[in-house]
Amino acid sequence: MNERQPAANASVAERQRKIIHIDMDAFYASVEQRDNPELRGKPVAVGGAAARGVVAAASYEARKFGVHSAMPSVTAKRKCPDLIFVKPRFDVYRGVSQQIREIFAEYTPVIEPLSLDEAYLDVTDNLKGMEIATEIAEEIRAKIKAATSLTASAGISYNKFLAKMASDQRKPDGLFVITPKNGPAFVEALAVKKFHGVGPATAERMKRLGIETGLDLRQQSLAFLQEHFGKSGPYFYGIARGIDERRVQPDRVRKSVGAEDTFVEDIFEFEPACAELLPLADKVWRYCEAHGMSGKTVTVKVKYSDFTQATRSRTLGTPIGGAAEMLEVAVALLASVHPFKRGVRLLGVTLSTLAGNDETARPQLELSF
């Protein structure tokens, strides 16, 4: 990547940005293996082993068997009979995450955490005066290893989408660069189901439209993508061309954190609908973990095939303690609208009445997944 700075009087907006995406390798599981030598080299899942448990993270040894985060624990155990379940220690993970965040802050104040274990950094202008983003990423990875004994992977590119995609290329403990020259070609060759921002339902919908690769996506008009994917259409149009104008956004306080998913086919039965709530609760809780907050009110949104919708909420006496508890409440709320009056096309889970560790309420903002 040609990362030399242009003339000093040019604004950041007029220059090629330098974005780093840092992603810790199997973070929760790696912390557990670091702290307990008996777990090293073995398949480990962080989460509850009970029937309603959820895998919060899986070691690379467990991933070889198909175990992954947000998977029901019973499914994970079936895939890997020797799987070792470890109860999560979120206070420990937050402490390690804070160590890592302090390393990031040595290089730039423009940090956008996505969870406890990953973040975007804009190093176009950086505190070290370093011109090469790849060198910054290498230094950060080395400092993380020295401070925590954990490994991190890094992606470097000129926008957030490509930096995120790059960090997945050499995992674990790797680094990958996507240059402005190579960006469009990299996207063309990639399967759309691997795109950040394209979930399983959207990937399936794209497949039905004959869109399976970045090149297929690039061949579609903006009007076509807007027609079939609504407000996401312009985003898909841009990333198919290696374009992503989103800025790295430092922390913003929130009072409501939500996630939702639209399905390729309507859901009519209760059990499949419950299964779709699991990754939504996991996604919401991961954000809360990363920001040291929880909430007391769980809301489930159900949108039917005719676009009418129902919402149900429950406020607990104490803050939610984890994804499994949130899921349990969400399932109970979903049960209150079952049997469904028609097919379900969308489900959403929101956690509100949020407060940080100091129980200070935060102003309302919406989190889009």
From TrEMBL:
Family, according to the entry, reads as follows:
Belongs to the DNA polymerase type-Y family.
- Listed SUPFAM superfamilies: DNA/RNA polymerases (SSF56672), Lesion bypass DNA polymerase (Y-family), little finger domain (SSF100879)
Matching entries from CDD domains are given as:
PolY_Pol_IV_kappa (cd03586)
Q: What is its main location?
A: cytoplasm
- Write out the function statement from the record: Poorly processive, error-prone DNA polymerase involved in untargeted mutagenesis. Copies undamaged DNA at stalled replication forks, which arise in vivo from mismatched or misaligned primer ends. These misaligned primers can be extended by PolIV. Exhibits no 3'-5' exonuclease (proofreading) activity. May be involved in translesional synthesis, in conjunction with the beta clamp from PolIII.
- The molecule here is called DNA polymerase IV
Enumerate the cofactors the protein uses.
Mg(2+)
Entry superkingdom: Bacteria
Q: What class of enzyme is it?
A: transferase
Locations listed in the record: Cytoplasm
Name the catalytic site residues.
Answer: 118
Q: Which HAMAP family match?
A: DNApol_IV
Chain segments annotated as coiled-coil in the UniProt record: none
Q: Which reaction does it catalyse?
A: DNA(n) + a 2'-deoxyribonucleoside 5'-triphosphate = DNA(n+1) + diphosphate
Which Pfam families does this entry report, sorted A to Z?
IMS, IMS_C, IMS_HHH_1
List residues of the UmuC domain. Answer: 19-199
Keyword Nucleotidyltransferase: yes or no? yes
**Source taxonomy lineage?**
Bacteria, Pseudomonadati, Pseudomonadota, Alphaproteobacteria, Hyphomicrobiales
Q: What is its EC number?
A: 2.7.7.7
Q: Where is the site labelled Substrate discrimination?
A: 28
Keywords, comma-separated and alphabetical: Cytoplasm, DNA damage, DNA repair, DNA replication, DNA-binding, DNA-directed DNA polymerase, Magnesium, Metal-binding, Mutator protein, Nucleotidyltransferase, Transferase
Cofactor binding notes:
Binds 2 magnesium ions per subunit.
Q: Which GO terms describe its molecular function?
A: damaged DNA binding; DNA-directed DNA polymerase activity; magnesium ion binding
Q: Cellular component GO terms, alphabetically?
A: cytosol
Q: How does it assemble?
A: Monomer.
Question: Which InterPro entries did the record assign?
Answer: DNA/RNA_pol_sf, DNA_pol_Y-fam_lit_finger_sf, DNA_pol_Y-fam_little_finger, DNA_polymerase-Y, DNApol_IV, IMS_HHH_1, Rev_trsase/Diguanyl_cyclase, UmuC
The answer to whether UniProt assigns keyword Magnesium to this entry is yes
